[in-house]
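Most newcomers find our protein records easier to grasp once they have seen one. A learned vocabulary of local backbone shapes supplies the integers on the structure line. An example says more than a description, so a record of this kind follows:
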Amino acid sequence: MSELADAIAELNEDEAKRLVREKIDAGVEPLSIVDECREGMDIVGGRYKNKEYFLSELIVSGEIFKEAMAVVEPLLKGGKQAESLSKMVLGTVKGDIHNIGKDIVGTLLTAAGFEVYDLGIDIAPSIFVDKLVETGAPILGMSGLLTPSFESMKETVKAVEEAGLRDKVKIIVGGGIVTEQVGKYVGADAFTSDGPEGVEICKKFARETK
């Protein structure tokens, strides 16, 4: 494990920022810095899975990762780009304005190599469909923390079907109250109430839709 990966895994924000700047000044390939940051986030995900870390640690690590990417990403433009694992459209469904869980998942997905199109909160079915068409993303992630969100999820799945995209798009739904029964009810391919688990499911989808 590199020093930078270790700093992120240990949630040492100041050290991570120092190392990123140090590596840039030393002429280290930006893509290599991104890989080290992703390695650190992978370790955080493993610790969360093993119950060594909790939601608060996921949030902190996500913020550290975002700060590092804010420095590195401008250096990637015009240079060698990281190959995207897959594209994914993400958002909190119509009638729900909760975003913490969605934001964490979005950060973890980005760290895992996904090209994430985060639409935000209170997103209507037609907006999800339009973005899927625009980007050609083969994965759709919907978040919701309120019971009425289930109907919005179901309406969005229906809209994806009506647009003729259902056989081309894998759909995952998530949120603290989302269960297997909810996943089946809305017509999703998978469900989760756990961020790192959601990332693993999306990695599986990425392999299946290549």
Remarks:
- The two ends are 30 Å apart (CA to CA).
- The mean pLDDT is 93.
- The chain has two domains: 3-76, 87-208.
